[in-house]
From TrEMBL:
Segments forming a coiled coil: none
Organism in which the protein naturally occurs: Azospirillum thermophilum
Name of the molecule in the record: 1-acyl-sn-glycerol-3-phosphate acyltransferase
One term of GO molecular function: 1-acylglycerol-3-phosphate O-acyltransferase activity
Membrane spanning stretches: 18-38
């Protein structure tokens, strides 16, 4: 690590953030567990409140473009570059995640995933596709929003991997008298303490390949504030496309374009609160 990178990290800041994060999490675990057990409406609202606070605690400034579909259920389709995506998306979307089955067995984080009523899927077992589709469909029928990462793995954050189409089969489901709403979402880490991250700094957010979780998390909490841009793209339904592959390809293109614009810093639509140059403000 270079001297510049060392300057970005503070062990004292990291220790404080971890202590506050753990205290906050341990405080809410029994509340959410009780809400899930009793099937209280709070079980839907509390995770978003929890994640929004966690984002502030660990220094994530989540900035939103576009408009989230509020009338559910909605299947949100997002790129995936880090475990931090859970906190980022969880802070702006009231819903549950679709995650690989291994997550259920992770210490601590597996418990948090279960408390958010995550749908666990075995991505490599073709024989399980129909059952998993039915499990996801049942949650959507119940009115729950779900967040799916169809890349199948996390990337380096600078690009979007091809989307796997298997779980898009659930998009053919009808909710009452209408087709299921599908909304693509782009998530991109763009700035570190106000400085554009670029390829060099983006691995401070992205967690992929053979990176170890604990050292990466420790580096994250030591750093200054990171800006993460979330862009909600126009919603679609399966009826807009000739096949689920065409739907998957459309979602991949929309998400990839959002990531590319955010990475380049030349997005055609400014974030709320951003200054608009005078020559663009007059119409």
């Amino acid at each position: 690590m270079t001297a510049t990178h060392r300057a970005l990290g503070s062990a004292g800041r990291g220790a404080l953030r971890l202590a506050v994060y753990l205290g906050w999490t341990l405080l809410l675990i029994p509340v959410q567990a009780l809400a899930v057990w009793l099937k209280l409406p709070l079980r839907h609202r509390l995770p978003r409140f929890y994640h929004a606070a966690c984002a502030r605690i660990i220094g994530l400034d989540v900035r939103v473009r576009g408009r989230r579909v509020e009338q559910g259920p909605v299947l949100f389709i997002s790129n995936h570059s880090s475990y931090l995506d859970i906190t980022v998306l969880g802070s702006v979307i009231p819903g549950s995640f679709v995650a690989k089955s291994e997550v259920a067995g992770w210490p601590f984080f597996g418990l948090l995933a279960k408390l958010q009523r995550t749908v666990f899927v075995e991505r490599r077992a073709r024989s399980e596709v129909h059952r998993q589709r039915d499990d996801i469909g049942a949650r959507l029928d119940a009115g729950d929003n779900l967040i799916l990462f169809p890349e199948g793995t996390s990337s380096d954050g600078n690009r979007t991997l091809p989307f796997k189409t298997a779980l898009f089969a659930v998009a053919a489901r009808r909710i009452g008298d209408r087709p299921l709403t599908v909304q693509p979402v782009s998530v991109t880490a763009t700035r570190l303490d106000g400085i554009p991250m670029g390829i060099a700094f983006r691995p401070f957010y992205a967690w992929y390949g053979d990176m170890d979780l604990a050292p990466h998390l420790w580096q994250v909490v030591k750093l200054g504030g990171m800006t993460v841009e979330v862009e909600f793209h126009p919603p679609v339904t399966i009826e807009d496309f000739p096949s689920r592959k065409a739907l998957a390809d459309h979602c991949q293109r929309a998400v990839a374009q959002g990531v590319a614009h955010a990475v380049s810093g030349r997005h055609p639509d400014p974030l709320p609160g951003d200054a608009v140059p005078a020559d663009q403000g007059a119409h």
